[in-house]
Structure formats: C-alpha cells, structure tokens
Amino acid sequence: MLSDWDPIGVSDIPEAADEYDAYADTVFSMLVNQNASVDDVAQYLFKIATEHMGLSYTQLAERCDKAARAVAAFRPDL
Fold it and tell me: Origin, by domain of life (predicted)?
C-alpha cells in the first residue's frame, strides 16, 4: 500500500516504513470485519489524507482509489 498511497511522500525513507501502519490496520479491519467496499476504503484514505494530515485535494482522490483497489484485491469477493 505504501507505493500506491503515500500522501506525505515517505516511501523512499527506510525509517518511515511503518508510517502508515495504523491506517493499514484500519483498512484491513474494514475489509475483513466490516465487508467494506472499495469506495468505502478509498473514502477512508481520502479522509485521513485531507482531515488528519491536512493535505489538499489535488490528486488524492485518484491515489486513494488506486490504493483501495490494490488492497481490496486481497479479498476475492470484491
């Protein structure tokens, strides 16, 4: 997911490899326990990037959707 969704641009920094772990745990829980859709995951990632990280809208929606589709691919029923 780090390569698909890296809103603050830390994917090249080895010390930041765990930067998004808390969000990944939530996404995993959404997919497994709540049967969330790809759109639900994309909306969650967008909300994190814009509301919690304070980033602007520019290209975030597309990145969030791409990352959501990548992680949802691990759940065969989506």
Answer: Bacteria
pTM: 0.72
User: What is residue 2's DSSP assignment?
Assistant: T
- What would the two tokens of residue 44 be? 């969650």
* 63 in Cβ contact with 77 (< 8 Å): no
Q: Which residue did the predictor score with more confidence, 56 or 41?
A: 41
Q: How far is 11 from 2, CA to CA, in rounded Å?
A: 6
Contacts of 28 (CB under 8 A, 6+ apart): 71
| Residue 77 confidence (pLDDT) | 67
**Identity of the residue numbered 77:** D
Q: Is 6 left (phi over 0), alpha (psi -120 to 50) or beta?
A: beta
